[in-house]
Write a structure and sequence with these properties.
This protein is mainly α. It has one domain. About 95% of the residues lie in helices and about 0% in strands. It contains one helix and no strands. The chain is rod-shaped, with a radius of gyration of 21 Å. Keywords: Membrane, Transmembrane, Transmembrane helix.
């Protein structure tokens, strides 16, 4: 039973790392998206 628990702990750790990785990628893409939209708006303001 103890061995099973150790396996569960490792499994949960893997899921946690995957979740952190996915969240990091999402935040990165949102950051890029916001940056590009801000740049586009800035260029539009300069153009007028």
């Amino acid at each position: 039973q103890l061995h099973l628990y150790k396996g569960d702990l490792l499994f949960n750790k893997n899921i946690l790392f995957k979740l952190i990785f996915i969240v990091f990628i999402l935040v990165f893409f949102i950051y890029l998206f916001l940056n590009t939209s801000i740049l586009v708006k800035h260029k539009e303001l300069e153009g007028t």
